[in-house]
Amino acid sequence: MKQFASLWAKAPAANRIAAAFVGFWLLLALAGPWLAPHPVGAFVDEDVFSGLSARFWLGSDYLGRDVLSRLLYGTRYTVVLGLGAALLASLCGTSIALAASLCGGRVDEVISRLMDTLISIPSKILALVLVAACGSSLPLLLLICALTYVPGNFRIARALAMNLAALDFVAAARARGEGKWAIAWHEVLPNMVHPLLADLGLRFVFVVLLLSGLSFLGLGVQPPYADLGSLVRENISGLTEGAPAILAPALAIALLTVGTNLLIDAMKPEGQ
């Protein structure tokens, strides 16, 4: 704990702000349902689109439900689905990239052309087609969002792996008789971690925006569940009134993505 406090005190202000942003949203995702003052679907207000008050900190929605409670529940779905899809996309993309770069030849050519084909399809169109064909349950949404961003991660990971595979320490490992996967795991991958972590953050932002867009179109998280994009869509009729029910989830999406981008910038090595 003391070591963590020392590192926190020595960290630049930008790093601490970024970490606080991301930590805040992770805390809400984990503890939000227990912090919610009302059940997520309870009708607690006779008025709709009521303003901020001591009883309803963020007002009520189009059915008289507490916006703060629904926001706390919705944050969990947005963060968990976004982080899970980003991790899965990065894991799959990096594994395929390592295999392609170390095998080379026809294997690399076939995999690269397949990924180029997938990446040429706009992510939102690909996701819409997959959701329309397969449905929009929570596990399917996670898999669809991950599949959508595997090609982008593959291209970055492959470029890193190809550069590293041409260096002397990899040639020395081959001369020692190490196998391809041993070289990938012990020599190449450790030198790719930092840029891949930055890419993971970007994939998370992309997935959050994609999920929010799908939910806004009614193809994402379905009732009785709701993510931040669903909360914006269902309260769209309160836009002309400037109701907190629509402003709060839209602001939450913005703060989540901005905070993640701040953390990505803070992760840059010194001197860059």
UniProtKB/TrEMBL annotation:
One of its GO terms (biological process) is transmembrane transport. It is found in: Cell membrane. One of its GO terms (cellular component) is plasma membrane. Keywords: Cell membrane, Membrane, Transmembrane, Transmembrane helix, Transport. CDD domains: TM_PBP2. Gene3D superfamilies: MetI-like (1.10.3720.10). InterPro entries: BP-dependent_transpt_permease (IPR050366), MetI-like (IPR000515), MetI-like_sf (IPR035906). Its main location: membrane. Belongs to the binding-protein-dependent transport system permease family. This is ABC transporter permease. It comes from Novosphingobium umbonatum.
